[in-house]
């Protein structure tokens, strides 16, 4: 009979340690690549959004069939249809991402401004909320006036986040290696 190895805490830490290092290096490289290649990155984002719609739609469709929910099947098939359109027209999808983001910034900015006015009338702190609202509205108009600015901003923010994620994973590796030493 084969002897089973007991897994110890140091084994688990070493495994997590190596994963943190690998993930960190990959994420740093990916983040830098995204920042350096914004057009390619926005097209890839468009592809991922289309695939996400198809996967979500398939999930809705399959779960609705088993639960006998007609609307769920409709939503699932509609999501799959939208996902196929998005993937089939990556250029248009990529070009529309900044516009969608601009509309979102405008809506959120207006909501923040309204909330800040309500807070002001209620004698509650309102300054930061108002400032964020104004910045959101201004940012949305800037993106609408210059869509490429929006595309570059989105990909840069995504790239910076992924790079930071990678850096923190490498730091985690360093911390875990100190624990194991």
Q: What do you see in this structure?
A:
The structure is a single chain. With 181 residues, this protein is mostly helical. The protein has one domain. The protein is 90% helix and 0% strand. The chain contains six helices and no strands. Helix 2 packs across helix 4 and helix 5 packs across helix 6. The mean pLDDT is 84.
Features:
90% helix, 181 residues, mainly alpha, extended
Write a short abstract of this structure:
The protein has helices at residues 9-36, 38-67, 70-88, 90-121, 127-145, 147-180.
Question: How many individual domains?
Answer: 1
The first-to-last residue Cα distance is: 34 Å
Strand content: under 5%
| SSE order | HHHHHH
Helix/strand-derived category reads: mainly alpha
Write the layout of secondary structure elements.
Blueprint: H1 9-36, H2 38-67, H3 70-88, H4 90-121, H5 127-145, H6 147-180
Helix pairs in contact: 1-6, 2-3, 2-4, 2-6, 4-5, 4-6, 5-6
